[in-house]
Amino acid sequence: MAGFVPLQTIPLQPFYLPPGQDKIPAMDKVRVNALVTWGNILEGQERPLIAYSASNKQYYSCAPLHSHPALPTNDVNHDFSSVEEDVILEGEVYEDDEREEDGNIKMLKQTKEQLQRKLEEQNRKEREIEAIVESHRTQRQLILEIAPIYLVADTNCFIDHLNVIQSLVETKRYTLVVPLVVINELDGLSKGGRDDATSGHILAVQKNATTAVEYLEDEFEKRNRHIRALTAQGNILQSISIRTEEASNKGNNDDLILNCCVFYCSDKARDYMPKEKDAPIYLRREVVLLTEDRNLRVKALNRNVPVKDIVNFSKWAKIKK
After folding, report:
1. pLDDT at residue 87, rounded to an integer
2. What DSSP assignment string belongs to 260-313?
3. What would the DSSP string read from start to end of 140-162?
4. Cα gap 236→177, rounded to integer Å
5. How confident is residue 232, by pLDDT bands cut at 50, 70 and 90?
6. CA atoms of 48 and 155, how far apart (whole Å)
7. Which residues pair with 53 in a beta bridge?
8. Helix residue ranges, H only, the chain
9. Residue 20 CA to chain centroid, in angstroms?
10. What b/e readout covers 204-239, taking b as 16+ CB neighbours within 10 angstroms?
11. Most confident option among 86-95, 210-219, 232-241
């Protein structure tokens, strides 16, 4: 029956069982319905092969008889054994279907649990975002008034844009503040990291660092009042002939550079807190950090320190290189 074409074209009808009811009688019912349908199809053909007897309540064959040679007995027995095997295989197929159905249900449950976890995670993130937005609504608006006087440049500015630094100093509109940690980094780069370093990039960095150190030494020797050095403790140096300082455990070099900027940010609550309840807070900044380092820029913004990359700052200041 599995390969009987008329049965294959009939849409499958779903059957539902109440929870806890035995499935075996239900499957038998499905098989009987299929057999009845199969009999109706054979009876309704132009040359019917079977007919239904209402008195006996059973089907009987009405197919034309044909003469066939007698089959050996062993072949007949073989045919019946194959039919028995088909019946057994049919039962095994239904058992496989049940196992497959159980597996599908298990997979659907797992998928449902995964979707529920994703939905809960999404809802949690949305609640966190709403909490952040709400906290910002309750906070006062912060406005920075930037009037740059002091420029703090990191080490990479001296390595990659020394000509821009020189142009900024020559305008005499700004004071270049050089953290002592930057000078020490330039000293280390000018001496080279390895004796066998021969790559083009390393040699270029070493050369640029040497040029930057020579420039700073010359300007400090000239007593250029638009250049000053600053220690991590906030001490201003007029000379860099002695430029060693005690090691500090308060952060890395980026933190020490940022501390030099914070030194020029003297915020007192009585000076900037407005008297009105919801009025914005105004902070005046006379220092700008020049760096292209992403991490350092984020730290500066968190400390309310203006930060800009040196190329864009020079364009803003209309500096001609």
Report:
1. 47
2. HHHTT----HHHH--SSSSPPEEEEEEEEEE---HHHHHHHHHTT--EE-HHHH
3. PPEEEEEEEEEEEE-HHHHHH-H
4. 9
5. confident
6. 99
7. 58
8. 5-9, 23-43, 73-138, 155-160, 162-170, 180-191, 200-221, 253-262, 269-272, 294-302, 310-316
9. 46
10. ebbebbbebbebbeebbeeebeebbbbbbeeeebee
11. 210-219
Better pLDDT: 98 or 133: 133
The SS3 assignment for 47 reads coil
- What the block records as the tokens of 178 is 């050089």
The mean pLDDT value of the chain amounts to: 78
Alpha-carbon distance 98 to 117, whole Å? 29
Q: Which residues of 43-54 are buried (b: 16+ CB within 10 A; e: fewer)?
A: eeeeeeebeeee
Token pair for residue 55? 């008195």
Tokens coding 127 = 């609640």
DSSP conformation class of 194: -
Residue showing tokens 């915020």 = 267
